[in-house]
Specification:
By secondary structure, the protein is mainly beta. It has two helices and 32 strands.
């Protein structure tokens, strides 16, 4: 009789050095990496092989025991925490847990490159710099990602369980291949992708010094490896939707500059709001005509990264900040701000959720 629900069991092992264990379990023991998160500073990795599924948890403690993954509500009579007669702890978890979007913890945040925030080695050897240390209560992660040495990237076909994800290239180029989107696509400075939830993709190659801004909602999300899919896929389906969102490849060379929502500035829209049905909006903003004015917004999340140039950020009740390339800031809803003294080459990446 076929079981209506899939059931997986995995052994939990604590680790004091997950980064070193990734190489040990993969290269030395020959196990296959199936899942890892969070991408910017991994603390959990799941391997399988030799008839075993192993979950490594950074700092998990002594004997975390056995985990059972299933969506069967009747498994173990509905119990979620059990202990075997011999003392082995057993916990039952959903195999396909729903994506939880934490409530945003609104704050005015300024992150400057000059503050020397640490670069952390994350997934596939990429270097991550955190642009919103508070993560606004876990609602969003914004990362400045770089690969110092160009060439092939040691990546696998994978997908992310997210509500929204943006990749915006600010320096160099990177080749990526996506499910149902044809062959490899080269993303160059000024271009961006939106990666719909769970679209399979693989990073192939990058230039020396490639840098991108990656926005993910929520902050902590799972990356899973798809060992069965080969990319590129045989079908080209540009209109396909993943959880209501379409893949977007927006190129700077095709920009149509219009007056921005901020007086004194112009903007180009990336079409992301339309292709996510308003989940998020992404614009590139430059200096225009007229004087900057005080303004507010009603978005839940309003994030901005300074890609080039310089400006003075004024916030009501706050000390002003001189911002230059590499700096980032978050403005809470309802707060009055003004972008003054913009240099001629000022260029901002603005992300609003919802769009």
């Amino acid at each position: 009789m076929t079981q209506p629900y899939e059931i997986r069991a995995e052994i939990c092992l604590p680790t004091t050095d997950l980064r070193a264990d990734l190489a040990f379990f993969g290269k030395v023991l020959g196990l296959r990496l199936d899942m890892i998160y969070p991408a910017d500073d991994p603390s959990v990795a799941v391997y399988s092989g030799h008839g075993l599924r192993v979950r490594l948890e950074q700092g998990a403690g002594v004997n975390p025991g056995l985990r059972i993954l299933t969506d069967d509500p009747a498994f173990a009579d509905g119990q979620t925490d059990l202990t075997s007669p011999g003392g082995t702890p057993v916990s039952v978890h959903p195999l396909s847990p729903p994506l939880v979007l934490p409530q945003t913890d609104h704050a005015f945040v300024v992150r400057r490159l000059a503050d020397q925030a640490p670069w952390v080695i994350g997934r596939a050897g990429m270097q991550y710099r955190d642009l919103i240390p508070t993560r606004l209560g876990g609602s969003i992660i914004a990362s400045h990602i770089r690969i110092p040495d160009g060439g092939p990237v040691p990546d696998m076909v994978h997908f992310h369980k997210v509500g929204f994800q943006l990749i915006f290239c600010i320096k160099g180029w990177v080749d990526v291949v996506y499910e149902d989107q044809g062959g490899p696509i080269r993303l160059i400075a000024g271009d961006c992708f939106i990666q719909p939830p769970e679209i399979r993709h693989r990073v192939l190659e990058a230039s020396d010094g490639i840098e991108v801004i990656e926005i993910g909602v929520p902050a902590e999300h799972v990356t899973e490896i798809d060992h069965d899919m080969t990319l590129p896929t045989p079908h080209l389906r540009p209109d396909r939707e993943w959880q209501g969102q379409r893949f977007v490849y927006n190129k700077a060379v095709d920009a149509d500059w219009q007056p921005a929502h901020l007086p004194g500035y112009i903007a180009r829209d990336t079409t992301i709001a339309a292709n996510t049905k308003g989940v998020a909006g992404v614009q590139v903003i430059r200096r225009g005509n007229g004087d900057p004015q005080w303004a507010t917004h009603d978005a839940d999340i309003h994030f901005t990264f300074v890609m080039a140039g310089e400006m003075l950020l004024e916030g009501e009740g706050k000390e002003p900040f001189i911002l230059t390339a590499g700096d980032a800031f978050v403005i809470p809803p309802g707060m009055r701000t003004r972008y003054t003294k913009p240099s001629d080459d000022l260029e901002l990446l603005e992300v609003r959720l919802p769009g």
